[in-house]
Design brief:
Layout lengths: L1 E10 L2 E7 L3 E6 L5 H13 L19 E8 L2 E8 L6 E5 L5 E2 L3 H6 L4 H7 L1 E2 L4 H6 L2 H9 L6 H18 L8 H19 L4 H51 L11 H33 L6 H8 L1 H9 L1 H31 L10 H23 L12 H19 L3 H21 L11 H20 L10 H40 L9 H56 L5 H27 L2 H7 L5 H38 L4 H41 L3 H16 L4 E5 L5 E4 L4 E3 L5 H19 L7 E4 L7 H14 L5 E5 L13 E4 L1
Parallel strand pairs: 3-13, 3-14, 8-12, 12-13
Antiparallel strand pairs: 1-2, 1-4, 4-5, 5-6, 6-7, 9-10, 10-11
Helix pairs in contact: 6-22, 7-22, 8-19, 8-21, 9-18, 12-17, 12-18, 13-16, 14-15, 17-18, 21-22, 23-24
């Protein structure tokens, strides 16, 4: 049996997992990774759950169903063993790879006599009990061998022990205490006494001679009966094997020729091709389903995307201008802010320019105003000096004021420049000169009478100036600044006004450009918000479009990728279909149905050959030679009846002889002349009878013991010598040829290449484990021909060093050529010691 795969529904911490096994399979996992769980899962699948789910130590941690499947191969036939939680070890189901359900009783036939206990003893190697290894004797080893293949072995072994014990209580070769030993000693002593007493009795001697002759005849008759009985047993065996002999002879005439290419492995090969095609077709269906799901879930075209598709070229060109338009929008907002600031500044300029509508003076106006101002100033001066002189005791600061104003006008003239330069310089110099003049005059005298005419003239000049201000819409009451400061402010305001108008025109132009750009998009609600919002809406619109395009592109790429996968799978299917055609063509059949028909014919032929071979194996060549001597079954039966009749006659003759012997013995006893002889003779007779009874009992026990021994040897097919040889070979390999032999006695001993012998208890712990491993493998391999179960090793080398571990692994690899080996370990060195395909890691 080989385990190809395990599928766990729920078992302990393992749930919904699948593991595939090779002929040699190493499984690496740390503590608590699930190694012991997996081992117990395999045992429960083979032999049934020991407990129900509620109390089972490996009940699933989640709510999944406890159980799973074992995928196995037995004699090139694949089976699936499924077992889930239920009564009587769980609900069992066995199918083939086509899921055809087979009778559950098939598992018992596959396992044979192997139960869980036998499996643990022969096919499972965990942490060994080293004390028990040290005590293992030849008898213990033979007992373990016989425990496989014998029904009721425990009762047989118990009976054999009790018989051996009873026989030893009756007689031992060198014993003194057993009953028969004591009786023989006493009998010999009595015989010597009787011999002394009977020397004078001639008649006694004659009778004794007669007695001896009768005894001789009885002995000869017993030998004759044993010979006849042996012949009887042989003929009885012939009778039991006659049917097999006839069947074998008949089948020998049947010529069975098997065509090549129709074995179970060939069927598996073709089914594997079919499975590959089914697998690939399932892959294609899955991919097509995914494509259909993708199409159903594909992005539905939105109104925005449809609008874009209808104007794709236009919108893409417009989108290239978006950054420029955003910059225009920022410039537009900046212009608006600049315009507001300029308009605020213009209001201030209007105030400084004497009103919003004040006009500039031409040259004539400026000349006129300057003349009026000069006349006015001159009148004011004359007015000041035309008054009646009156001594003025107050300090005269007029000259300071005049000089200050004059200097200010000179400086202003240079600042203003242009036409007003001359006027301002002239007036300023006049005021400065007049100030010096006043400073140099003595305290003035003022005349009030001379000021009247000057005031009228000054008023007339003021009216003329007011008229000029009205004509030029000037709202400024300081005529002396009109031709200087005011004209400068009016010019500045007019220039500022032109700048504002220019800004308004630029703002209008930018506004029109942005509006034109927005109108080109034809997007809803675009003109019902600010330019910035509209442009952001356009940007978001295009970002959404690009995102949708990318999603569509990704979907198309995935669809293309799946279509390429489908194409690859279809190509693989074509190759496999071609391989199927080549397979059928090679076997000269046109279809799988025709192949299967021929396969069934070949299987029948193969089974017939196997039946013939089994018949040949069941009958020895010696038996065939004996059976060939019989003409027919009636001839054999006649011989059997004759031997039974002779056996009965011999038995009756022995009974008659025994009676005669007893009669002669009685006569001898009656001839004794004195009581001492009579007593001796009687005692000797009693002793002899007792001895005969004890001998008979002892012989019966020994014969029974030998018969049981033969039965057990037949049942175990003489495996013990094979186990001895294999154990010695494996132990030699494991110890790198240091130990050359294993000897069996009351205790097992081992011998080194130098000839030194050691008891098991004298070995190191690692060497003791190597010996135990060699014995386990030897036992297993001796049964592998009849019961090929996989060997499971659970961290069996924990005490091995690197060299011993390597040797054990190499031995496992060699054994795996015949029997599957599954090795569980937590030692990560295994990664360097086995092929990656033979290593399974548990996390």
């Amino acid at each position: 049996m080989q385990i190809n795969k395990i599928e766990i529904f729920g078992y302990g911490k393992l749930s919904h997992q699948v593991f595939e096994f090779n002929q040699f399979q190493a499984i690496l996992g740390a503590n608590e990774a699930g190694k012991t769980t997996m081992i117990n899962f395999i045992k429960d699948m083979l032999f049934g759950f020991t407990k129900r789910k509620a109390t089972h130590p490996y009940a699933p941690k989640d709510k999944s169903e406890m159980g799973g499947r074992l995928y196995i191969t037995v004699d090139d036939t694949a089976y699936i063993i499924e077992r889930v939680e239920g009564k009587n070890g769980g609900n069992l189901k066995i199918t083939d790879l086509n899921e055809t359900e087979l009778p559950p009783e098939l598992l018992k036939r596959l396992l044979g006599p192997i139960n869980r206990e036998t499996f643990d003893n022969l096919f499972y190697f965990g942490s060994p009990n080293l004390t028990e290894v040290g005590k293992l004797s030849k008898d213990d080893l033979e007992t373990r061998i016989r425990q496989v293949g014998v029904i009721g072995i425990e009762q047989w072994l118990e009976l054999k022990k009790s018989i051996e014990k009873a026989a030893d209580e009756l007689y031992k070769q060198r014993g003194k205490k057993p009953k028969l030993n004591k009786a023989l000693i006493e009998y010999q002593e009595s015989k010597e006494k009787l011999s002394e007493a009977q020397q004078s009795y001639d008649e006694y001697l004659n009778l004794n001679h007669q007695y001896q002759e009768l005894l001789q005849k009885k002995q000869e008759l017993k030998i004759q009966r044993e010979h006849t009985f042996e012949q009887l047993r042989t003929v009885q065996a012939d009778e039991q094997n006659w049917n097999n002999y006839v069947a074998l002879d008949k089948n020998k005439k049947e010529q069975i020729e098997l065509l090549p290419g129709f074995t179970t492995s060939d069927l598996s090969e073709f089914k594997e091709l079919v499975n590959q095609i089914d697998f690939l077709k399932a892959k294609i269906r899955d991919l097509q389903g995914l494509i259909e799901q993708q199409q159903e879930k594909s992005l539905k075209s939105s109104a925005e995307y449809n609008l874009y598709l209808a104007n794709q070229s236009k919108f893409d060109d417009l989108y290239l201008q978006l950054d420029t338009q955003m910059k225009n929008e920022r410039d537009y907002e900046n212009l608006k802010r600049d315009l507001r600031r300029q308009e605020q500044d213009l209001e201030l300029d209007n105030e400084a320019a004497g009103g919003n509508d004040s006009l500039e003076f031409n040259d004539d106006d400026q000349t006129e105003i300057n003349q009026l101002l000069e006349e006015k100033q001159a009148l004011k001066t004359k007015k000041t000096f035309s008054k009646t002189p009156i001594a003025d005791d107050k300090p005269n600061h007029t000259w300071k004021l005049l000089m200050t104003i004059g200097l200010g006008l000179v400086v202003l003239g240079f600042v203003v420049g242009g036409i007003g330069l001359f006027t301002l310089l002239l007036v300023g110099l006049v005021l400065v000169g007049f100030g010096f003049h006043l400073k140099s005059q003595p305290k003035s005298m003022v005349s009030q009478e001379q000021t009247v005419d000057y005031d009228d003239q000054i008023n007339k000049i003021n009216q003329q100036l007011s008229q000029i201000a009205e004509n030029h819409q000037i709202k400024n009451d300081h005529p002396e600044t009109w031709t200087t400061v005011l004209q400068t402010s009016i010019k500045k305001r007019n220039q500022h006004r032109q700048q504002v108008e220019s800004l308004k025109q630029d703002l209008h132009n930018d506004h029109e450009k942005i509006v034109s750009y927005l109108n080109s998009w034809s997007l809803p609600n675009l003109n019902n918000q600010t330019f910035s919002q509209s442009l952001n809406q356009i940007n978001q619109f295009m970002l959404n479009i690009h995102e949708m395009k990318n999603k569509i592109k990704i979907q198309q790429e995935k669809r293309t990728e799946k279509l390429n996968e489908i194409s690859d799978y279809q190509k693989q299917i074509e190759k496999i279909e071609q391989a199927q055609q080549d397979f059928l063509k090679k076997r000269n059949v046109s279809s799988f149905t025709e192949f299967d028909q021929q396969y069934q014919i070949q299987q029948v032929g193969q089974k017939r050959k196997e039946q013939i071979q089994n018949l040949q194996n069941s009958i020895s060549s010696q038996m065939i030679e004996r059976l060939q001597q019989y003409k027919n079954f009636d001839d054999l039966k006649q011989k059997l009846n004759k031997l039974e009749r002779v056996d009965r006659e011999n038995s009756e003759s022995l009974t008659n002889l025994s009676e005669k012997i007893s009669s002669v013995k009685i006569t001898i006893d009656s001839l004794a002349k004195n009581g001492t002889y009579d007593e001796l003779r009687q005692d000797l007779a009693i002793q002899k009878t007792e001895i005969n009874d004890l001998v008979s009992k002892w012989l019966t026990l020994k014969l029974t013991d030998e018969w049981i021994e033969k039965v057990l040897n037949l049942a175990s097919h003489g495996r013990f010598p094979q186990v001895q040889a294999l154990a010695q070979k494996y132990f030699n390999m494991l110890t790198n040829h240091h130990y050359v032999s294993v000897e069996y006695g009351k205790k097992i001993k081992v011998k080194t290449e130098t000839g030194t012998k050691f008891d098991v208890k004298e070995l190191s712990k690692g060497t003791m484990q190597q010996l135990y491993l060699a014995l386990i493998f030897a036992l297993t391999m001796s049964f592998s021909d009849e019961y090929p179960m996989p060997i499971i090793i659970d961290d069996g080398f924990v005490d091995f060093d690197h060299v011993r571990t390597n040797a054990a692994i190499e031995l496992m690899k060699e054994i795996s050529n015949t029997t599957q080996v599954i090795y569980f370990t937590a030692d990560d060195r295994i990664e360097k010691q086995v092929k990656s395909e033979d290593l399974l890691k548990l996390s």
